[in-house]
Amino acid sequence: QVQLVESGGGLVQAGGSLRLSCAASGRSFSRLAMAWFRQALGLEREFVSAISWSGATTLYADSVKGRFTISRDNAKNTMCLEMNTLKADDTAVYYCAAVEAGGAYENSPVYDSWGQGTQVTVSS
Which distant-in-sequence residues (6+ apart) come within 8 Å of 11 by Cβ? Predict the structure, then answer.
């Protein structure tokens, strides 16, 4: 497995922006498919965005499309999620996930490594 550490969460007003980062170690980062999931209080974990090992393929949940941008820097072993025009509904714990694979995947069971999560709170 790979070790994942998220950072960048916090409290922001609706309409604001945050940038989440995920630092990876323990496995060749450039061979990893990566993703962000989130879980709001009382709800199930849901897919947010995914990116293939090369960065050529990205996926987004409909709820964040056009507002969030996923990216990765294989030289720095990091993945980021730029979140703009944040809404109260974006409030959740955001998790970074990884699996050694070539594509980009929406389904959480695909991923075998998870971070501890970072809290994002959007005040309305």
Answer: 121, 122, 123
Q: Quick check: 84 and 17 in contact, CB under 8 A?
A: yes
Q: How many CA atoms lie within 13 A of 11 on its CB side?
A: 2
pLDDT of 1 reads 79
How many whole angstroms separate alpha carbon 30 and alpha carbon 37? 20
Query: At residue 92, what are phi and psi to the nearest 5 degrees?
Result: 180, 170
Give me the torsion for CA of 19, 25, 29, 31, rounded to 10°: -130
Q: Is the dihedral of CA 31, 76, 91, 42 positive or negative?
A: positive
| Residue-level pLDDT at 29 | 93
The rounded distance, in Å, linking the Cα atoms of 98 and 93 is: 17
